[in-house]
Predict the structure.
Amino acid sequence: MAYDVEKPDEEWRTELNPAEYAVLRQAGTEPAFVGEYTDTKTKGVYSCRACGAELFTSTEKFESHCGWPSFYDPKDTDAVELIQDRSHGMVRTEVRCARCGSHLGHVFEGEGYATPTDQRYCINSISLRLTPDEA
């Protein structure tokens, strides 16, 4: 798929630190319970760390106690791209930034959380950047 933001791999490697690159460009996963935004309650907008596209807001963030930031819906439906992921012997739905194709995490359904969508967008903190609302 063609993305609005496309760069050669070498350019991504210079713009992102090794941990960011491993998650965003190689579909890695940061360890549970260590991410910068796992327990953040700050109101604001979460953007893609690779390209700056606005992806989620604090309004949709909820406590899932899974070890990563969880959202029940993206900021806009077209902000993210959902792709079937059959890696690691599982069938999951990968969440990518629709603007640059960077890996964000996975979305799960039907887990019983008391959210309006019954979805949990389980997103790596390292793939996001929070811009707090102005006070």
Notes: The chain has a mean pLDDT of 95.
